[in-house]
Amino acid sequence: MKSIAAAALVAALPVAAFAQTVTVEDAQDEVTVPANPETVVVLDLAAIDTMSALGIEIDGVPDIAPPSYMEDAFAEAQIVGTLFEPDFEELAVMQPDLIVAGGRSQAQVDALSELAPTLDMTIEDGDIVAQAKARAEAYGAIFDRTDAADEAIAALEADIAEAAEAVEGKGDALILLANGGKISAYGSSSRFGWIHGALDLPEAREGLDTETHGEAVSFEFVAETDPDWILVIDRGAAIGQEGEAAQATLDNPLVQGTKAGQAGQIVYLDSARIYLAGGGIQSMRGTLDELTQVFGDSDG
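Structure tokens predicted for Putative ABC transporter solute-binding protein YclQ (300 residues):
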């Protein structure tokens, strides 16, 4: 009788109970998740960026205006809350097989794990290029897209090599984030610092604060630093916020009097790309293309 009861129980279990699994490393630990999950929710823009680059279909996304190059990935997906506040009721109805969180949604990982296997794919400050590659490899393993992951990583490495060649011997740079009339500077260990590290682009000012929001600085600081290049990220433009644009903020004698200002080497990067989806393969490749073009066109 026991064998009959056991057989009945096995027959009643869903097929998914016997699905294969994959163990990958996320930002916290090694995590075992279903292989080739069918219904996938992603609450991190860098993850959506890289997963879409690998041809992975995403079923649920946060309510946010994405960078233009990611619009297709959002077009057919269901909205399941915001980056900071997922819609748990909607997710419970949706019953995803896998949730990918991270970055702005990192604080929700434990709660999301109660609903479905959840990965924390946060990309921390530090060696962002290495983390971006590791994330691509993990997604490739989960979704049987290892060849696509290898191709994406190889393309990223080629773009890094090309950009590194373009910036070589062209001077130092200062990375600034403009936000509503205020500016912050970012060094090599910051969220944007991979530009320095990956390309061997010298910092115009070393030892900057590594906080996520950078080190608040003045226009006098920029003038004193006197960089050869200023790379600008406009936070307001990135998030669609009204307010003073970065170009207007930096249009003053102190900034314009720097070597960068005098040489026309103040570069306004595609801010939505690098600010919202930083660490995504497509985001990084797009920024690298921008840098290759502007540095390559300069006389140096």
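The CA atoms of residues 124 and 205 lie 22 Å apart.
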